[in-house]
DNA sequence: AACATAAACCGGAACTGATTCCGTTTGCAA
DNA sequence: TTGCAAACGGAATCAGTTCCGGTTTATGTT
């Protein structure tokens, strides 16, 4: 996955080069079409060719813009993703700053659980389109955040590895497998994570 | 994945129907050819068409026998898998029965880590060939075993969910991502799991 | 204000690899 | 010997991804 990256706008000044008008127009068309397909046919209907056709665009354009299937899926949940990131980075406690590290860890894992369950279909597709797709998107952000909190809550521990370990149970494939049909619910998953966190709390 | 299942042989008596001679011959040819390809070209070279050609068999046969790419990969690691299962089910403690539940949990997770790292390439392929492939193979065995131990070590806890949570960090994609290039080692992963287990030990 | 030009972008044909289908062949047991 | 379920092989299908010759656009120039 290596979608086109555009310069970030800082203080109204854009670096190198701005996105071309036709490109911007197409991006909107593509995302709109894709969202429409998901809404009507579910994620199963979301094939690259379908999206391209529905958007009135060539598949090449689609790949240029989003890199691959996984990239397209992540783009579709981008908005909600930004909200979530904002919430744990600068939102109100206990998710955001201001609460104790332990409380924030707990709040973060609960919130991530909810968010994942909420968009399970798209996340499942995004994470499994390519073998390591999960570690290309928002994962690094979650990991950095959780690492920091763990380091605070538990000085001396291997925060880097522990963060992975706590994020792992929230991988879309596992949740999808357990939440469908079997009696496992989001609440049970959260409770289980709380149980694991006991090691930190005490 | 839904490879053909053959009757288990119990006390020399085979149930329903035995595998046909030509089928057995082909299975050996396929596995031999596949192992050869992996040895010479790595797992990347393991395409279904390649294997079929090398084995002198049609692709249809390959699918009839192993269900899909994932099934073929699991078949290739089956021997080692049986050893591992035997070790934690009836081998010497602390991995096998005879030790305390907490010790067995720890031993199990360490052993599983080693085993996974050892065959990381094939496991990565096996687990990511299809979105939920991981939960079709040996996973249920691990989960049942770990659930039992957790229930013993921690009566009242949600062993079912906790078992998933402890197995999740050992998913092939995560390990592959961390062990390649970044300073994470199998030992660090094990130490991290031990840290999580502190909640049980105390 | 029209123009020239290179960088970006476009579309869709072509390619790749997994999986399915189905007419044909084979092994086994009656 | 014969019947048929099981197995076979490989063509056909399907979806993701790559390629590349042909446009469009942003920008500097006249």
UniProtKB/TrEMBL annotation, chains A, B:
Keywords: DNA-binding
One family name in Pfam for this protein: TetR_N
HTH tetR-type domain ranges (all copies): 24-84
DNA-binding region, residue intervals: 47-66
Record PROSITE patterns: HTH_TETR_2
An annotated Gene Ontology molecular function: transcription cis-regulatory region binding
Region forming the signal peptide: none
Keyword DNA-binding applies: yes
The keyword DNA-binding is assigned to this record: yes
Protein name as annotated: Transcriptional regulator, TetR family
Organism lineage: Bacteria, Bacillati, Actinomycetota, Actinomycetes, Streptosporangiales
């Amino acid at each position: 996955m290596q979608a086109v990256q555009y310069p970030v706008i800082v203080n109204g000044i854009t670096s190198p080069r701005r996105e071309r008008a036709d490109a911007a127009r197409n991006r909107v068309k593509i995302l709109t079409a894709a969202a429409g397909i998901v809404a009507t046919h579910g994620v199963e209907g979301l094939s690259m060719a379908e999206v391209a056709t529905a958007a009135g665009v060539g598949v090449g354009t689609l790949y240029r813009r989003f890199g691959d299937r996984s990239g397209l899926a992540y783009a579709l949940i981008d908005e909600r993703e930004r909200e979530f990131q904002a919430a744990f980075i600068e939102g109100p406690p206990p998710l955001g700053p201001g609460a104790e590290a332990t409380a924030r860890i707990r709040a973060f894992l609960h919130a991530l659980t909810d968010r994942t369950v909420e968009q399970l279909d798209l996340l499942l597709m995004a994470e499994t389109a390519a073998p390591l797709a999960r570690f290309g998107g928002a994962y690094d952000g979650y990991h950095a955040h959780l690492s920091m909190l763990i380091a605070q809550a538990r000085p001396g521990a291997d925060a880097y590895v522990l963060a992975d370990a706590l994020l792992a149970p929230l991988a879309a494939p596992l949740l999808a497998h357990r939440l469908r049909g079997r009696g496992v619910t989001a609440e049970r998953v959260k409770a289980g994570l709380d149980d694991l966190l006991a090691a930190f709390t005490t």
